[in-house]
Specification:
By secondary structure, the protein is an alpha/beta fold. It has five helices and four strands; from the N terminus they run βαβαβααβα.
């Protein structure tokens, strides 16, 4: 499991670092990814696109459990995830330990 933790404002300048971290993670075979947005104050469309690309790269049979989980608990971040539909494609939990439990539940 790779954990990518984000804090502060996730806008164009910092989205490149997020993109690089996610690209690195999805190259590993059978990788599971936890993106922790609990410290994120703002997320823009560029960063949301990075999350969606990572989701597509990790796309696999749901019988093996989720390949990616998001952690988000701030209303503005949850709203952005809801408006884009990511919350319907990727399990989104409010606490990191619950997200890790979900990823570890499947081999």
């Amino acid at each position: 499991i790779t954990v990518v933790q984000v804090s502060g404002e996730l806008r164009l300048p910092s989205a490149a670092r997020l993109e690089a971290a996610l690209c690195e993670a999805v190259r590993r075979p059978d990788e599971r990814l936890l993106i922790d947005l609990s410290g994120c104050l703002l997320i823009d469309s560029i960063a949301i696109g990075s999350v969606l690309r990572a989701r597509r790269a990790l796309d696999r049979d749901t019988a093996t459990g989720p390949a990616m989980v998001l952690v988000a608990n701030r209303p503005q971040i949850l709203r952005a995830l809801g408006l884009t539909g990511i919350d319907r494609m990727v399990p989104t939990l409010g606490e990191r330990h619950r997200a890790l439990d979900l990823l570890l539940r499947f081999p």
